[in-house]
Write a structure and sequence with these properties.
Layout (H helix, E strand, L loop, with lengths): L1 H21 L4 H53 L3 H14 L3 E5 L15 H13 L4 E4 L6 E7 L4 E7 L8 H41 L13 H48 L4 H25 L7 E4 H14 L4 E6 L3 E4 L1 H18 L3 E8 L2 E8 L33 H11 L3 E6 L5 E8 L1
Parallel strand pairs: 6-8
Antiparallel strand pairs: 1-4, 2-3, 3-4, 5-7, 8-9, 9-11, 10-11
Helix pairs in contact: 2-4, 2-5, 5-6, 6-7, 8-9, 9-10
Length: 452
Amino acid sequence: MKPDKARPRSAVARFFRRLKRYMPKGLYGRSLIIVVTPMIILQSVLVFVFLERHWSLVTQRMSEAVARDIAAIVELYELHPSDEDFAGLQKIALSKLRIRLDRLPEDALPPPAPKPFFTLLDRTLAREIRDIVRKPFWIDTVGNTNLIEVRILADDAVLRYFTKRSQAYASNSHIFLVWMVGTSLVLMLISILFLRNQIRPIKRLAEAAQRFGRGQSIENLPPAGAIEVRQASQALTEMGTRIERQIEQRTVMLAGVSHDLRTILTRFRLQLAMMSPSPDRSGLEHDVEDMERMLQDYMAFAGGSSREASSFVSLPDILQTVCERAKLENIPCTYTHKGPPTVEVRPLAFERCLGNLVGNACRYGNNVNITSVAELGQLSIAVEDDGPGIPPEARQDVFKPFFRLDEARNQDASGSGLGLSIAQDIALVHGGDILLEDSDMGGLRAVLRLPI
């Protein structure tokens, strides 16, 4: 029993999985389906009920009336078959019953003609004539768009009847269908307009959330739409304000700490300047310079770049700038760019991020190549070198603050261990990330990916 029950469930699950592939992915399309689908089902049920109950019932009653009129004429003709009586019967049928009557030879009854697919009138009228008149007959409801032709085999002749189609079936049903379809279209149009107005604030909220994820300002987000959407917009704005306030407080605190530390370093420099030249003095001066450089890197890492406003910059100009810095260190550096020349970023932070990646490549490699591609809403910048690279198991650790792969972790080692951490922090502020891969040049390939 269990396998039999499982089969229908699996079949239903497969059906819904296949149906899900064709479902709209956006909220507007899904909301439209939720509104339109019940309306279509309701209209289909109304059309079925109307055709099955009302239209067919009215057509049956009208066809029955026409069949009784024909039966009465047939009986009168058989009682009074003379030419004079037939002429009077024609007048009565035309004036009172609106039926044009003719008399044809007995062999004028053709065989039944093929019927079209939809022959509700043929079936109904033929059934009523068969039940009421009970004589051989032939009908044609499709040969003429306005008239119905009926031939009845009487005692010595074939009586031919012409009557209007509107006398045999409900001819105003199309008006009901037109009104129903027209009303449905108007309601659907109104629903579409209302849905667009309700979806628009949600789209603005989603765009604002994306801007916030890229580190852009969301101060100009007006609350609009339903109360839930307004609450979500207000919550997003307040969250952004709180985060910026916390970052600002942290930056102010660290700026104070930096000022105090710089004051101490300045004292060291003054004391060193008063000392006589010696190897110890040179070593201490080198240590003070390293401490100041580490302090600057730490402040850049801890302070972040969230206070800088976004603006459009020329990407080839920034690439050329970082390449020229690499050449000052006698490291050959080339770059290529494909796509739009301008991107919206935080200029100083973006240049620092790219400069840290290029600086890291220059520190460990002898040649550096930069490849930039901007397309499909994403900017991808790959910085490659021919250095020793980074083992795959350590590629996540290098983004940790103060982590260095070099064996010497003393003050003589170049770098503070914050270059890649700062670069990743800036990438995350822009809503992107940094991937480390093996380079075709034999070293490391650092890929900076940002949404644009």
